[in-house]
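4.2 Preliminary Data

To establish feasibility before requesting continued support, the project team ran the inverse folding procedure on a target of 329 residues. The structure was first converted into the token representation described in Section 3, and no sequence information of any kind was made available to the design step. The complete token record follows.
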């Protein structure tokens, strides 16, 4: 079956079939191989894309800029100083940018913003992260799992932490699309939205995947292929929530005991940044306030041979390059 995604926006993996997702993964793997072998893919000279960042980033910004450069595309970075949503509406901004650029990336807050950019701009729009979804991260995650474990279907992927927001939501979606057995292990008040779970379970009927929600760490980690976690407080949330999150989620920290419950071949994943030591300003502040030196994952696990977090980070660039190349006109 021939697949073409030209002109499509990339807002959430809900919008993409398993075949289309696998097409993007295959394209990313091909582009990664070409990059490693110094084979140029700069076939889009004369094109420009806008990168809108209302939330700061290291991996997403660098991935989009390097990916675009490799494809021969120029970028414009828009952050503080732009009038987006302040003196100019999203709809008006979209119509202006759509006249100047062949594509728009957005990283920020509500999903409605990226959807409105796609609705009004007339060019492909790519979701670099919203409160609800993080689809580019999911492509990087799936490529990483495939590289290390050989396949995706039937793998048990366990997520420890707050599963209500972009990472938990997106892992639930991509797992159900591609036939992974997704487990969210956390305090029940941090379970993903029941409507989303029901929607994903409809896709599971076709893919053969499953969703399990549990508070039991041993049950969750047993025979896991992938152990995944994220920071306990999401970008944009107030500092006041730290005390509650630490109390609620400390039992779900990924440590060596958790990894021993998983398969010997299991890999550890994290979308980064991570508070696994005191080498960050925020990490030191949290340690001073709450007396905790490691949060969602211990430094031992983060630095272990089972950790593939930097392969995962690198794959952000290769998969984002695939999304741009596949969708830009």
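Position-by-position output of the design step:
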């Amino acid at each position: 079956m021939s697949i073409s995604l030209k002109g499509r926006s990339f807002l959430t993996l809900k919008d993409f079939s398993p075949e289309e997702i696998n097409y993007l993964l295959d394209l990313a793997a091909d582009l990664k191989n070409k990059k490693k072998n110094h084979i140029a893919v700069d076939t889009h000279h004369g094109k420009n894309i806008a990168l809108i960042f209302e939330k700061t980033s290291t991996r997403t910004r660098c991935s989009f800029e390097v990916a675009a450069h490799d494809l021969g595309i120029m970028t414009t970075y828009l952050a503080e100083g732009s009038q987006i949503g302040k003196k100019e509406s999203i709809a008006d901004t979209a119509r202006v940018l759509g006249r100047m650029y062949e594509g728009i990336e957005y990283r920020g807050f509500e999903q409605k913003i990226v959807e409105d950019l796609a609705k009004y701009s007339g060019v492909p729009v790519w979701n670099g992260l919203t409160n609800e979804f993080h689809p580019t991260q999911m492509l990087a995650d799936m490529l990483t799992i495939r590289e290390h474990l050989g396949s995706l279907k039937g793998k048990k992927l366990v997520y420890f932490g707050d599963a209500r927001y972009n990472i938990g939501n997106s892992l639930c979606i991509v797992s159900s699309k591609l036939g992974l057995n997704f487990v969210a292990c956390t305090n029940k008040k941090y379970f993903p939205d029941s409507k989303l779970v029901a929607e994903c379970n409809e896709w599971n009927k076709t893919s053969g995947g499953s969703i399990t929600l549990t508070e039991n760490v041993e049950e969750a980690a047993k025979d896991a292929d992938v152990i995944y976690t994220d920071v306990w407080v999401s970008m944009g949330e107030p500092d006041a929530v730290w005390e509650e999150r630490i109390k609620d989620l400390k039992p779900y920290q990924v440590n060596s005991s958790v990894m021993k419950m998983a398969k010997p071949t299991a890999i550890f994943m994290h979308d980064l940044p991570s508070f696994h030591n005191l080498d960050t300003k925020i990490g030191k502040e949290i340690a001073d306030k709450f007396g905790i030196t490691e949060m969602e994952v211990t430094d031992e696990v983060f630095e272990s041979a089972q950790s593939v977090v930097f392969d995962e980070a690198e794959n952000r660039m290769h998969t984002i390059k695939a999304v741009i190349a596949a969708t830009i006109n």
